[in-house]
């Protein structure tokens, strides 16, 4: 762009090109390649042996623990995606109907929670859901329950609720953007032809917001499945997820090659979801 | 977008209110307890105090972690802006071989689950014999936020268009002069905005950092380690201050990135 004519083959353009290829190769491609290579290594007597084999992947497919946990984790993340979309849609729809200063303020209010420390948010949610937490004391106070609920204490439900609360903004934004893209003429045409606002919503707005819903779902799913801190903090013994197993291979279990293989599988699931999402979105448009 | 009946608008506001209750309760609890003591699960509303803010100044360990986080955030934003600008100029410079593949590689650390970005760097540092320290955290954060700065700069460069740059070259400016006098001034607000967003991302990055950090920990790692024992009131004071500052910073950044559109004017 800034180099023209004979200057294109000079020293500086070459240096720039070297940098532009060198940096991603050195800091992104090479680490990923070594990570993939590790997934084919194995452990022997506490040492990592650089012996290529499919042993780690074989263990994933033959051991009875891993596939059910991966499946359960996927279902959990699907539920998180569905919940965030259900909860986020009305906010996105309100945003699309607001103008000027009000829209700016509501949008800002959606984004501010993202700036709060992740760890502190999880800790606060834990103190809300806990046995003596705010939720239980509220329920006891209203008389809805007689004894504190243990439904949301250190289990998968707690993980589900916490992830949902953390990821709502990531569902609101894509849906809001897709609502923004709906041509105004379509909506006006619909009401000119005598459709009620409910009909316009059901026949025009909802179908045209599907690309945004799909993007939101794949966003939230990938963020949820990659999160190993939330399940660790609010999941307790029963709230074991796939991400936690991967992370434990690099800590207590100390089996880096097996951890790398499990992480590769996690990555493949994430890639499959992103690819499926963008194909669905392209078809809906 | 459409003329909604009054009850529909009211219902939407009500639902949004409930969503904000969900989103804000995890923020309000630490902020309230930074001003009011909580004894036996009851907030002492009658007795506000700034004691937790005063206690914060005596907590050397946490202040050191904040210092580390600032160093990492600042270095990673500056590095990612410099690298992002160079990469973007190269990408926009013509049809060089494999540039789409390179662009895809740049996005990868941002698209993949953080555990994969973190693990691949962890294994890479181990294989190359680089000890884990704040330096490795800075490298990891740079690689992570660079996807965002790079993308923002490419979009801006493409919107500047080739005319101005061609005019500059036609008038006899060298590549360096074109960069300094044409490209940089046009990029300035984008660079500042992207820098602030990178800083905010780096400031709270936890999962990648957890994998590549050494003995010097950043704030999120420190908080993660403290969690098992519970937090002292001064931590609430700290996160309240940080939330206020980052919010202000990001409002400024958004205004720089989206001039006109983001203005709250009618």
Q: What report would you give on this structure?
A:
- In chain A, helix 12 packs antiparallel against helix 13 (256-284).
- Chain A has a two-stranded antiparallel sheet with strand order 1-2.
- The model of chain A has no long low-confidence stretch (mean pLDDT 87).
- With 285 residues, chain A is an all-alpha fold.
- Chain A is built from 13 helices and 2 strands.
- With 266 residues, chain B is mainly α.
- In chain B, helix 3 runs parallel beside helix 6 (134-160) and helix 4 crosses helix 6 (134-160).
- The model of chain B is unreliable at 261-266 (pLDDT under 50).
- Chain B is built from 11 helices and 2 strands, in the order H-E-E-H-H-H-H-H-H-H-H-H-H.
- The radius of gyration of chain B is 23 Å and the shape is globular.
- Chains A and B meet through helix 1, helix 3, helix 4, helix 5 and helix 7 of A and helix 1, helix 3, helix 4, helix 5 and helix 6 of B.
Radius of gyration computed on alpha carbons of chain A: 24 Å
Radius of gyration of chain B: 23 Å
Question: What multimeric state do the chains show?
Answer: heterodimer
Number of strands of chain A: 2
Topology:
The complex is a heterodimer of chains A (285) and B (266).
Chain A: H1 11-38, E1 42-44, E2 47-49, H2 55-62, H3 66-97, H4 100-115, H5 118-129, H6 134-142, H7 156-181, H8 184-192, H9 197-208, H10 210-226, H11 229-234, H12 242-249, H13 256-284
Antiparallel strand pairs in A: 1-2
Helix pairs in contact in A: 3-7, 3-10, 7-10, 8-9, 10-13, 12-13
Chain B: H1 6-35, E1 36-39, E2 42-48, H2 51-56, H3 60-92, H4 99-111, H5 114-127, H6 134-160, H7 162-170, H8 175-204, H9 207-212, H10 219-226, H11 233-257
Antiparallel strand pairs in B: 1-2
Helix pairs in contact in B: 1-11, 3-6, 3-8, 4-6, 6-8, 7-8, 8-11
Task: Give a concise summary.
The complex is a heterodimer of chains A (285) and B (266). By secondary structure, chain A is mostly helical.
């Amino acid at each position: 762009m800034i180099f023209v004519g004979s200057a294109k083959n000079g020293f500086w353009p070459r240096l720039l090109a070297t940098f532009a290829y060198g940096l991603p190769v050195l800091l992104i491609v090479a680490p990923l390649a070594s990570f993939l290579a590790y997934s084919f290594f194995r452990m022997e007597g506490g040492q990592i042996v650089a012996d290529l084999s499919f042993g780690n992947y074989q263990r994933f497919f033959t051991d009875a623990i891993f596939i059910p946990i991966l499946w359960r984790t996927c279902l959990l993340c699907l539920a998180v995606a569905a919940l965030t979309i259900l909860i986020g849609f009305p906010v996105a729809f309100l945003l699309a109907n607001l103008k000027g200063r009000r829209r700016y303020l509501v949008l800002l209010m959606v984004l501010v929670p993202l700036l709060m420390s992740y760890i502190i948010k999880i800790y606060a949610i834990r103190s809300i859901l806990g046995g003596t937490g705010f939720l239980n004391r509220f329920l006891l106070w209203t008389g809805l329950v007689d004894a504190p609920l243990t439904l949301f204490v250190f289990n998968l439900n707690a993980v589900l609720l916490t992830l949902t609360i953390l990821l709502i903004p990531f569902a609101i934004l894509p849906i809001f953007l897709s609502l923004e893209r709906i041509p105004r003429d379509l909506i006006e045409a619909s009401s000119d032809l005598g459709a009620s606002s409910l009909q316009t919503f059901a026949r025009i707005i909802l179908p045209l917001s599907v690309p945004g819903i799909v993007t939101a779902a794949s966003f939230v799913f990938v963020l949820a499945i990659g999160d190993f801190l939330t399940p660790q903090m609010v999941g307790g013994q029963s709230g074991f997820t796939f991400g936690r197993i991967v992370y434990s291979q690099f800590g207590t279990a100390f089996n880096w090659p097996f951890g790398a293989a499990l992480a590769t599988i996690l990555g493949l699931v994430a890639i499959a979801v992103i690819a499926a999402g963008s194909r669905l979105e392209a078809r809906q448009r | 977008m459409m003329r909604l009946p009054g009850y529909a608008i009211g219902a939407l506001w009500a639902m949004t209110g409930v969503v904000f209750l969900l989103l804000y309760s995890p923020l309000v609890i630490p902020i309230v307890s930074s001003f009011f003591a909580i004894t036996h699960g009851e907030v002492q509303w009658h007795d506000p105090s700034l004691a937790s803010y005063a206690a914060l100044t005596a907590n050397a360990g946490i202040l050191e972690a904040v210092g580390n986080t600032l160093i990492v955030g600042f270095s990673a934003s500056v590095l990612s802006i410099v690298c992002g600008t160079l990469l973007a100029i190269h990408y926009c410079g013509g049809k060089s071989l494999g540039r789409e593949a390179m662009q895809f590689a740049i996005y990868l650390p941002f698209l993949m689950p953080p555990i994969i970005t973190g693990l691949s760097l962890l294994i890479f540092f181990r294989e190359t014999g680089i000890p884990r320290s704040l330096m490795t955290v800075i490298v990891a954060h740079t690689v992570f936020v660079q996807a965002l700065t790079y993308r923002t700069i490419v979009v801006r460069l493409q919107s500047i268009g080739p005319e101005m740059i061609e005019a500059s070259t036609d008038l006899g400016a060298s590549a360096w002069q074109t960069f300094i006098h044409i490209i940089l001034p046009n990029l300035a607000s984008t660079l500042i905005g992207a820098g602030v967003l990178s800083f905010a991302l780096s400031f709270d990055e936890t999962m990648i950092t957890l994998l590549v950090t050494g003995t010097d920990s950043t704030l999120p790692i420190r908080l993660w380690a403290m969690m098992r024992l519970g937090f002292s009131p001064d931590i609430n004071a700290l996160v309240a201050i940080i939330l206020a500052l980052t919010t202000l910073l990001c409002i400024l950044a958004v205004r720089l990135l989206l001039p006109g559109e983001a203005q709250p004017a009618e």
